[in-house]
Amino acid sequence: MVPTKKEGRAKDEEVIKKLEGLGQDMLEQIKAKSTPTFTTALRSKGNIIYDQGIGYIRLGDKTEERRFVNVGQARKFMQTVAIASKCKKFLNEDAHTSIRGLFYQLKFSLGENLDEELFSEQSESNPLVEDLEVALNVKREDLNLNTDRKGVVAGPLVLRDKFGGTEDEIDCTRQGRSGWMIPSDVDNGMEFKSVDADYVLVVEKDAMWQRLNEDKYWKKENCILITPKGQASRGCRRLIRKLASKKLPVYVFTDCDAWGWYIYWAIKTGSMNLAYLGQDIATPEARFVGVTMRDIKDYDFLAQLTIKAKEVDIKRAEEMLSYEWILHHKDWVEELKTVLKTKRKLEQDALQGPRLSFVGDYLKEKIAKKKFLA
Amino acid sequence: MVPTKKEGRAKDEEVIKKLEGLGQDMLEQIKAKSTPTFTTALRSKGNIIYDQGIGYIRLGDKTEERRFVNVGQARKFMQTVAIASKCKKFLNEDAHTSIRGLFYQLKFSLGENLDEELFSEQSESNPLVEDLEVALNVKREDLNLNTDRKGVVAGPLVLRDKFGGTEDEIDCTRQGRSGWMIPSDVDNGMEFKSVDADYVLVVEKDAMWQRLNEDKYWKKENCILITPKGQASRGCRRLIRKLASKKLPVYVFTDCDAWGWYIYWAIKTGSMNLAYLGQDIATPEARFVGVTMRDIKDYDFLAQLTIKAKEVDIKRAEEMLSYEWILHHKDWVEELKTVLKTKRKLEQDALQGPRLSFVGDYLKEKIAKKKFLA
Q1: How far apart, in whole angstroms, are the C-alpha atoms of residue A261 and residue B364?
Q2: In 3-state terms, what secondary structure has residue A222?
């Protein structure tokens, strides 16, 4: 029952050392009578690259230097140092909190001079914490800062979860109707005990996941069934990345519309706002299993179950057709052009039209026949 | 391993009988050469009552009769009958789906004449399904229609979950960092194997729940720790109701602001749009443990951690002071007036200001001293 926490602590010590190094560098700069500086990778658009060779979005080589003696940067500089100090404290205490908890710790120590909007859970890309992540080459999860968690998993995957002084074994085949909720951090204190699956199926909507879970799709197909519940959280993308690294094929099943395409491409290539995490969260190996407009050729009944494409779907399709990396994939180009031409779209739920269990047959067939888009 | 499903099936049979009864009544009306009618409780504002005696919001006695031979009602009438027929099919097949899945089944059978907006997961109060729920006195979960699930639980609670042909035992003390995700339906096929807790603590924010879970608050205090993750889902409210029926005290811990108050009162008294489910989901026994503006008297440091109340907080406080049932609670009136006077509010996260683990000490002390608002 009592966890060894060996690996966990070793990782923590490493991060603490990095945080200390940051402070020591600044102290030395002060001793040498120069102004403290802080160097981090530039995260603005000009330094975000879709790297065709590796297949995901990453930061380029441009860096940015923050200087303490700069009127525009002094306050943020101080806040960044204060955050680094708090994170070191959290790591030493072996306790996690949210961005909001961090905000109140800072407010308690520093007083009123804090922009609370910067520390809302909604502001996904908190620039101050990102500065630290990038400068130290760690994820905020490694700094004991939890991010919003979302998504559920079921199937032949057993995890060892060391957390809060105990260790639990999570068997994702025994989680009933609910499945196991994907946490913020799937690295620290967390390991795969066994992964005995043939592939990973990622299903956009929770309702569809529940449908497949009820039919024990993951059991019949020996796969790991994940839903991000819409846009995938950092933890969910990281879990998918880790499973792909175990050589499991990853298939993604979304609506054929703006939102569905975005969810797929964010899992596959990462996203602009998380470009600095590219290699940790992107899964270029992922393939798109459906639904597609071309499915209508194979499954007649879908023709009557399309619905009107919204403004946002049309706009997104046009946008995607302007991306160089999409143009390399003829199947995607054809798909997007069909939506633009017909002004119709298709939801994954439509596969339940003739009978509720049809969706499982559809997936089985498409996966067996390898009918994927890139 | 193989479930008996005895109770589950018995419940299903009962609901199927009710659905058949609905159809048979209509057939008899047709045979008697009168027009089919369908009687349901009126769900508009004029028939929604806050019942002070029982402490929750319920429907009054007014009913509404829908007639097939009414130009304005014929289409909806037909759709309601079609939904009843589909739900009977789902129950016979022992398969669940979402409102969206139901939409596509209807679209497949009935063709284009369906208002898809009526069947979006976002339209919380789908009037057609509600008609059935009210007329048959069942919950949509009993009709095998899943609702949006949300919320997490940890603590000394063991559940038996019979679902999709297997049975799993869920021990909520062994769910690691994640906790157990609260499903849409906590009644059918689901039972408490054991509940060995002293009380239930409901925590508004997931981040705060994770903080308390990491500190094993539920273990130290022998309580069941729930987060609805904001506004409580139907399943979460139902679970709280069921635990309260086991004679466990229920304490709710939210922000001191518009959203927090709403979450508390919805758990306690139910809500207008779910008035027809009042007794199944309301927990009038619930007490409000914090955070409160008066906490500042006992915990000095909170004074510097208040933040500016928003427009919506001010408006909500004014609104609540116009409700008769709030005026009965002097402590609530005082609380709301303090917000209006100071134009400040307090978040539960502020309790992490001095140290991350302080929030547990705060809760322990307030619960021990029974410092609750009604």
Answers
A1: 47
A2: coil
User: A142 and A160: one domain?
Assistant: no
- Which residues in A289-305 are b (16+ Cβ under 10 Å) and which e? bbbbbebbeebeebeeb
Mean pLDDT of chain B: 92
Last residue of a domain, one of B146, B174, B208: B146
Res. B122 pLDDT band, cuts 50 70 90: low
Q: What is the CATH number of the domain that holds B91?
A: 1.10.10
Element spanning A74, H or E: helix A74-93
Q: Is A221 part of a structural domain of the chain?
A: yes
Distance between CA atoms of residues A193 and A167, nearest Å: 12
Print the domain residue range for A137: 6-146
Q: Which of B171, B173, B178 to mutate to test the interface with A (most CBs of A within 10 A)?
A: B178
- Which chain A residue lies closest to B121 (C-alpha atoms)? A207
Q: Is residue A374 part of a domain?
A: no
Residue B361 makes CB contacts below 8 A (sequence gap 6+) with none
Q: State the CB neighbour count (10 A cutoff) for residue B249.
A: 18
Does residue A166 share a domain with residue A110? no
Place of tokens 């789906």: B97
Active site residue B104: yes
**B60 reaches A (C-beta below 8 A):** no
A207, B161: Cβ pair inside 8 Å? no
Task: For residue A84, give the amino acid letter.
Answer: A
Q: Count how many Cα atoms sit within 13 Å of the Cα of residue A98 in the half-sphere of its side chain.
A: 27
pLDDT band at A1 (very low <50, low <70, confident <90, very high): very low
Q: Tell whether the model's pLDDT for residue A24 goes beyond 90.
A: yes
Interface of A with B in 193-212 (CB under 8 A): 205-208, 210-211
Contacts with A166 from chain B: Cβ below 8 Å = 216
Residues present in chain B in total: 374
H or E stretch including A223?
strand A223-227
pLDDT score of A128: 85
| pLDDT of A124 strictly over 60 | no
Indicate the length of chain A as a whole number: 374
Taking residues A129-152, report their average pLDDT.
93
With 0-12 CB in 10 A as exposed, 13-18 as middle and 19+ as buried, what is B88? buried
CA dihedral (A98, B175, A237, A309) positive or negative: negative
What count of CB pairs under 8 Å joins A to B? 187
From the candidates A91, A96, A102, A104, which should be mutated to test the interface with B, based on the most B CB atoms within 10 A? A104
